[in-house]
Amino acid sequence: MPKTPSSKLFDLIKSLTGPEKRYFKLFASGGRSEKASKYIQLFDAIDAQNAHDDEALKAIVYKNETIQSRKYSELKAYLYDLILKSLQGYDEKSSVDFRLKNMLQSVRVLYKRSHYEDCKELLQKVKKLAYHFESFSHILEVLNWEKQVAYAQMDIAFLDSELKRIDQEESECLEQLRNLSIYRNIFFQVLITIRKNAFLRNEEQREMLNEILDHPLLKESSQAQSHRARILYHRIYGLYYYATMDYDAFYNVSRQIIESMESQPHFLKEDVSEYISALSNYSLSCGLLERYEEVEKCLEKFQKITPNTLDDELKIHMEYYGKKFALCIFTGRFEEGLSALEKHLKELRKFGEDSFQRGRFYFQYFYIYFGMGNYDQALEYLNEWLNLPRSIERQDLQSLARILNLIIHFEMGNSMLLEYLFRSTYRFLRKRNRMHGFERRVLTFIRDSSKIQSNRELKAAFEALKGDFEALGQDPSEKVMLQYFDFITWLDSKINNQSFAEAMQQKYLHSS
Questions:
Q1: pLDDT score, position 20
Q2: Burial of 469 (0-12, 13-18, 19+ CB in 10 A)
Q3: What is the mean pLDDT of residues 329-356?
Q4: Number of continuous H segments (helices) and E segments (strands) in the chain
Q5: Could you give the CA distance from residue 167 to residue 47 in angstroms, rounded to a whole number?
Q6: How far apart are CA 97 and CA 99, in angstroms?
Q7: What pLDDT shows up at residue 28?
């Protein structure tokens, strides 16, 4: 059976930013305007492709020549390595980590040639920069070089006076590295626990989180020994407050993280990905507390972020539009949301289908089209959401998707199909032990709706369901499902004979 061509070269080239591509062309050609070599031709051909097609690439590069698979494979491998080398050169100009590594390489070069005084001068510059960016591993290298250079010079006086200081610095750096590593591991433990269930709906799940947060280093923020560790400390609690629906605490810690990050702008310039995530959480916290003016300010901040990589650009796009859609949904501005959705779909083409996780947007697509009264399009995206591969992540949202499937078919008047969907949904929820009070009440309403004979009876059924939902909303384990989609406002629209958009706008105006 023939081997499937690897797409790793294609994927690498497609991940490059415009400046990175230009840098590669200059790097590969050495700045000379010579006739393009085969690897430059291959680079350009791949860059122009929308989908990976090895046969088409061979035809472009080799034209009428006899194509030898081995030579083509070698050409691809050479180009792949050449791109990596060019990216190393590119990153040297923008990455502090690369600068520090190169400076330490220069120390090695000078040391081999016995330029010890130059070594010491350069080491001081490396140490200052490394401390500024909390690069503890590089500080450890500097400290080791200080001893090495002193030994080469037989500078016993230096070793006698400075060895204790060096030993203390090494111990502190090792402790800071360990401290940072522990916070990072706790953060991932909390994240995994939460992602298994979008929200904690029973006491057992809460206890799992509380056990993790019982770690001694989470007692006081002062135990975090560096800026990066303090950020992780607060992010851990931010995840916890969000999962346990303590939205005031979630808002306060999210704002604190943003203020802390913005107070150290040199870290943001080096790596903006953490800032993008933190700003996303802050925006979410503002939305949960209906601080929509602050959400607007967060959207402005997203647009002002300078991405370092195409991945940063993709993250900014995803977070900006995710929060923009949410803002439009919760304020009832569905027309504005639809306009943003159409713009978003056009912009995402530059990233490619493989790199863009559209699945995370399907629910918002559904919500916007539902708000516009376009039930066919809403159903299409809801089905896309339902058909996503099931994984350990956000299992309880599968039950929400099936409940919404019932609601939208109810809106569309598909009474015959509803009977089948009712049985299917019932089996799904029972099998996965997801039959909570909210799910039971919706299923009862759908089952009984087929027996309703008049508009008066239907209105009474809507009012009764609303009363049940309001009672369920007092229970934290039930409240979350009522918040994810605004079922109560949907019921208000049915009771008052309004469109869903009108009811959402009315609710927003009354709350502001």
A1: 87
A2: buried
A3: 85
A4: 26, 0
A5: 52
A6: 5
A7: 82
Reported as a pLDDT band with limits 50, 70 and 90, residue 37 is confident
Supply the DSSP symbol for 95.
Answer: -
Confidence at 1, pLDDT banded by 50, 70, 90: very low
What average pLDDT score do residues 455-462 get?
A: 93
**Structural contact between residues 301 and 262, judged by C-beta atoms closer than 8 angstroms:** no
Give, in degrees to the nearest 5, the angle at Cα 318 between 317 and 324. 90
Rounded to whole angstroms, what are the CA distances from 129 to 79, 134, 166, 346? 34, 9, 17, 42
Q: Which two tokens stand for residue 477?
A: 């384990």
Distance between CA atoms of residues 392 and 506, nearest Å: 38
443 φ/ψ sector (left φ>0, alpha ψ -120 to 50, else beta): alpha
Residue 295 half-sphere exposure toward CB, CA atoms < 13 A: 22
How far is it, in rounded angstroms, from Cα 405 to Cα 416?
14
How many other C-beta atoms can be found within 10 angstroms of the C-beta atom of residue 458? 14
Q: How far is residue 311's CA from residue 297's CA, in Å, rounded to a whole number?
A: 23
DSSP 8-state code for residue 274:
H
Residues 6+ apart with CB under 8 A from 371: 329, 332, 334, 337, 500, 501, 504
Using an 8 Å Cβ cutoff, are 163 and 148 in contact?
no
Which of these, 19, 5, 3, lies nearest to 57 by C-alpha position? Answer: 5
- 3-class state of residue 26 by DSSP: helix
Angle at CA of residue 218, ends 215 and 222, nearest 5°:
140
Assigned token pair, 344: 């978003």
**203: CB partners within 8 A, 6+ apart:** none
The H or E element spanning position 416 is: helix 415-431
Listed by start position, the domains of the chain span 8-94, 398-512
Categorize the per-residue pLDDT at 356 as very low, low, confident or very high, splitting at 50, 70 and 90.
low
Neighbours of 378 (CB within 10 A): 22
What one-letter code names the amino acid at 368? Answer: I
Whole-number mean pLDDT of the chain? 88
Q: Which of 471, 337, 289, 480 is nearest to 397 (CA)?
A: 480
Q: What is the DSSP string of 185-201?
A: HHHHHHHHHHHHSSS--
Can you tell me the distance from the alpha carbon of 429 to that of 398, in angstroms, rounded to the nearest whole number?
A: 9
Report CA torsion sign: 419, 458, 396, 287.
positive
* Residue 149: per-residue pLDDT: 97
CA 330-335-338 angle, 5° bins: 90
Q: What is the pTM of this model?
A: 0.75
